[in-house]
Amino acid sequence: MEIDKILSNLSASVDFISIVKPYMNTEEIIKLNKAVVQINKVIKIYEDKLEEEVKCNSQ
């Protein structure tokens, strides 16, 4: 499923970030935080779509 692939890649990215973040400068960390906000928005959209799909299928 596409969402599983996205979440798997996201998990790998989080692992990478946790290793690299201590070596990043402030500007890079700010960019990273902005990217995380955008990723969270995308995840929320997918969650909402899935929720709607489940509602439609259960009716």
Structure, explained:
It is a single chain. The protein is mostly helical. It has one domain. Helix content is 88%, strand content 0%. It contains 2 helices and no strands. The protein has helices at residues 2-20, 26-58. The longest helix is centred in the C-terminal third of the chain and has 33 residues, at 26-58. The protein is elongated and about 50 Å long. The chain starts with a helix and ends with a helix. The relative contact order is 0.09. The mean pLDDT is 83. This is Phage protein.
What does this entry show, briefly?
The chain is mainly alpha-helical and 59 residues long. It is built from two helices and no strands.
Q: Which regions contain 5 or more consecutive residues with pLDDT less than 50?
A: none
Largest sheet: none
How would you classify the helix and strand content by structural class?
Answer: mainly alpha
Q: What's the overall geometry?
A: elongated
Helicity level, as a percent range? over 70%
Q: Please state the CA-atom Rg, rounded to the nearest Å.
A: 15 Å
- H-E order: HH
Mean pLDDT rating = 83
Distance from N terminus to C terminus (CA atoms, Å) equals: 23 Å
Estimate nothing, just give the exact number of structural domains: 1
**Annotation field: number of helices:** 2
Proportion of β residues? Answer: under 5%
Number of strands: 0
